[in-house]
Amino acid sequence: MLGSRGLGRRKTLLLAYGALLLVALAAVVSCQLVAGVETRKLDPILAGCTLPTGSGPLVRVANLVPTDDVVDVCIRSAGASSWGRPVIRDGGTDCPSKLPNGAAGFSYADVSIAFNAPGTSVDVKMIAAGDTCAGNALTEGDGLTLTAGAVTTLMRVGGNNVPQQILALQETGATNTQDTRIRFVHAMPGTGPLDFGIAQDAHLPTVVSSPLLSGPIAFGATPTNQTPAYGSLESDGYLDVSAIGYQMAAAVDGGSGKAIFEYTVDPRNTTASLYAIGVSGDNRHPLRGLYCDEGTGAGTDGAAASGAALLLGCTPSPLPTISIDVFNPALYGPNAPFEDQRRPPNPALTKAIAGAGSDLMCLVEIDRVEDRNAIVQAAKSAYPYSYMVDTDLSTPFTDPTDQNGQTPSAPTTPPCGGGVPSGDVDAVFTCMEQNCSTKGPGDTSGFLQSTTTCLVNHCAGQFLAVKSDSLSCFNCIVDYVASQEQWGSSKSACETD
User: Fold this and answer.
1) Which residues contact 131 (CB under 8 A, 6 or more apart)?
2) How far is CA 475 from the centre of its chain?
3) pTM value > 0.70
């Protein structure tokens, strides 16, 4: 008995040792799994978003190549052996949230806030967002010179069969407290030299009525060595003028002066760049101006308007638009409600049309030519040009096919001619003249004095007889008399034409 209990104890201990062994093995496996998770590499690994800082000159990035590329930026001291890490990728995990649509880099027409470069002479490589600096360059510029005490715009330009390049354009370092200081930059690839000036109108289409500079600006350049029409031109390309507000525009040099964009600059103290960007005929990247508020001094960005913490406050110029209103005065004859009270001359009608403010006004359901002409004359101050189409029975149909897609043969007899009993037609017109006319019975110069309800109430039997004779004859009579044609001319047309 004692031996049996001892054996049982030993078995119990052996099972316990086995359980401990299994637990130990499980712990090892678990530790291996946990170790695998803990050693997973993150890139970027830091939280937040911080652009490069230091003692080097300030730079900003402008991605103005008209493509769908989203770019990150690699920047190093000129000739250095290593590029290091891309600016946005190295900035931290929160950087995409500070760019439009959560992008991992700079999209077309993005202009960044200023950050520090590693030296006064740098190499710059722009790569696809999410790539490393070891990746292929989309655009590269080497040995670019920066200026201490001022921001330098690292501008990516080209495309549209123009080689891509990165240009370094120095911004003004002076503080602006009382003037409008604006720099024009030509970044429209494939477009000739541009004349910048004051637009005749505050919207497109318009023309450059007053050039601001003595000559055009070439692609990739800002104004240099030019005589301004007024104000002063600084060495860094900024035009310094009074802060009174301007309708800025650009036109291709040597052309008709037709503006390719217009941007109204507010009358205030400001320092800004106005970039001419886009490609003619490209709806994804249209020709327009990009106005970027750079603040009032070195390193002070007007970023509040951008809505994205890593971007400068930039606003594109309005696209050319045309507005169209369609207005229905409902002047279509006696069946129109309260038509007599609403017909011209009617001040309310004229005010509604002339005050619409659209570029084009399309008016429908005005049956009488005299009503159309009256409205045209009354609205001439708002719409000096007008066009209307007069049709008659010989006017071709826009679409001559029927509901089956077939083109019917032209009629060979009048609607109320041929086999239609003339007595039935006479009975209809006699009834209308007696009961629904603006003149007395038998006077064929009269016409329908009210709505077609009068015809239903007094002449239904006569109309049903004609309808049973010929649907075409029925339709012809109703169409004519409902248009307030005289009884005599209506009857003649339906019986003879």
Assistant:
1) 72, 86
2) 47
3) no
